[in-house]
């Protein structure tokens, strides 16, 4: 014969571990309700802020890419007419073309803005405005090894034009290290050797020329390496 179910008392309910934990959590919530509400509100604000930032960043990157596309035609003309570089830097507001400097100022934190910074630095270099070029090359950031190498080489060119040959050589070496498999790496190594030679650091120049012969024997620079080694060894 089944025995009657035992009636659960309030005391036994209170002693149940799960019920006890729930009670403690409930009590904690009501005791700290205001602080918990603040924390939840802060978390919501942070999440919303991140979403807004990401969306704004994406939109700004697209705007920068559009503006860079407009001004690049002017920049490209600089290869045949150096005056075009200045126009590319300033843009043509009357034609709705934002200059490279304005793109960097407005969208420099985006990927396209960073690319505009690289072209701005190169434009300054070609205009002979070496300090402005150095500032922008030095600030330039990219995930591309080739662009990093080109920026280091740009800094090297600036220092070479400022007659700071040891610094120039060091940056040309960094350019070669950042693009060890690039077609322009022999050029960077040769430029580093040239600058070390002018700076009087002939042993470093010779070591680089020997490296050039060993690693890039078919390059045009390697063909002239022996002649320069002889000059630096004299």
Report what the structure shows.
- This protein has a two-stranded antiparallel sheet with strand order 1-2.
- It has 13 helices and two strands.
- It has two domains: 28-141, no CATH class; 144-234, Serine Threonine Protein Phosphatase 5, Tetratricopeptide repeat (Alpha Horseshoe).
- The chain has helices spanning 10-15, 17-31, 33-76, 83-90, 100-107, 111-126, 130-139, 145-161, 165-178, 185-198, 202-215, 220-223, 225-233, and strands at 91-92, 97-98.
- It is an all-alpha fold and 234 residues long.
- The model is unreliable at 41-54 (pLDDT under 50).
- Helix content is 76%, strand content 2%.
- The longest helix has 44 residues, at 33-76.
- Helix 5 (100-107) packs antiparallel against helix 6 (111-126).
- The relative contact order is 0.06.
Secondary structure: elements and pairs:
Blueprint (H helix, E strand, L loop, with lengths): L9 H6 L1 H15 L1 H44 L6 H8 E2 L4 E2 L1 H8 L3 H16 L3 H10 L5 H17 L3 H14 L6 H14 L3 H14 L4 H4 L1 H9 L1
Antiparallel strand pairs: 1-2
Helix pairs in contact: 3-4, 3-5, 3-6, 4-6, 5-6, 6-7, 6-8, 7-8, 8-9, 9-10, 10-11, 11-13
């Amino acid at each position: 014969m089944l025995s009657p179910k035992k009636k659960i008392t309030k005391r036994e309910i209170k002693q149940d571990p799960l019920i006890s934990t729930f009670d403690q959590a409930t009590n904690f919530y009501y005791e700290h309700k205001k602080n918990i509400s603040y924390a939840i509100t802060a978390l919501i604000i942070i999440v919303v802020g991140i979403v807004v930032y990401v969306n704004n960043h994406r939109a700004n990157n697209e705007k920068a890419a559009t503006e860079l596309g407009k001004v690049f035609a002017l920049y490209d003309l600089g290869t045949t007419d150096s005056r075009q570089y200045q126009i590319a830097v300033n843009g043509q507001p009357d034609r709705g073309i934002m200059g490279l400097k304005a793109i960097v100022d407005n969208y420099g934190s985006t990927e396209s803005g960073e690319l505009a910074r690289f072209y701005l630095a190169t434009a300054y270099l070609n205009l002979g405005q070496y300090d402005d070029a150095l500032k922008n090359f030095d600030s330039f950031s990219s995930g591309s090894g080739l662009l990093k190498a080109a920026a280091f080489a740009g800094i090297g060119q600036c220092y070479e034009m400022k007659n700071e040959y040891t610094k120039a050589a060091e940056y040309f070496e960094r350019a070669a290290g950042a693009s060890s498999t690039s077609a322009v790496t022999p050029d960077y190594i040769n430029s580093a050797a040239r600058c070390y030679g002018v700076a009087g650091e002939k042993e470093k120049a010779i070591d680089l020329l020997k490296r050039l012969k060993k690693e890039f024997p078919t390059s045009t620079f390697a063909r002239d390496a022996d002649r320069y080694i002889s000059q630096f060894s004299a």
